[in-house]
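Record 1 of the preview.
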Amino acid sequence: MNQLNDLFSLLAEEKRKKKEFEDRIKTAARKDFNEVFQQLSPHSKPKEIVQEVLIETKPISTPIGEIPASQQNPAIADLPDIDKYLRTPQVSEPNTSEYDINLINKKIKFLEQWISKINNAGPGGGEVNLRYLDDIDRSTISDMRFLRYNATKKKFEFAEVNPHDIVYTTQLVTTSTYTVDSDDYYVGVNYAGPCTITLPTTSLSSGRSIVIKDESGAAETNPITVVGTVDNDAGGFIIQINNGATQLIYRDGWRII
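->
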């Protein structure tokens, strides 16, 4: 928008300069005619003289300046429609400098590119702060809240973390081996035989929790072997109690809690 305003300001400035130039040309012309009439004052028929002078007059090059009323010839004041003589081809319009033309062309090119961008991708607001976007409920912004979408408001809002908002991902294991996935929280084992559960070792963040439980109720007969480094023990551990379970949390390694 600033670039567009600059373009309009530039065009307005060029128009103003053109108007000033025309006014100065008219003033200079009147001064020339005044001097001519001062020299030809003994003659009559001033209108015919002006017409004759206009035919023979070359493009005006007289320095620009205001003519004091005391020096103006009264004869020229009686001439009707003198402005029409000043609009003849003898008075050329000012030429815009090469620098101004190039600047205008650059502004127009920029404007075309910007319009093309808007057409292809939409205007966008240019806002870089989430809190000031139109689809954010600003009244809900507060510390220690998470962002969620409210379909009723059709806006995103910041909400408190409540226990019922947290969904734990569960996994039922019915095979002899299973590797804990990155989204797993609860792993229930219900397999009629020994089972091996492998703990994840990559992409772990502090606070990640896992619960492993015997759901078969026969862990004494079919033990569950957990593979991984737990509490600095690379051998892991074994669940061999019916309906037994173990909860682990990650902080610089897996820890039993």
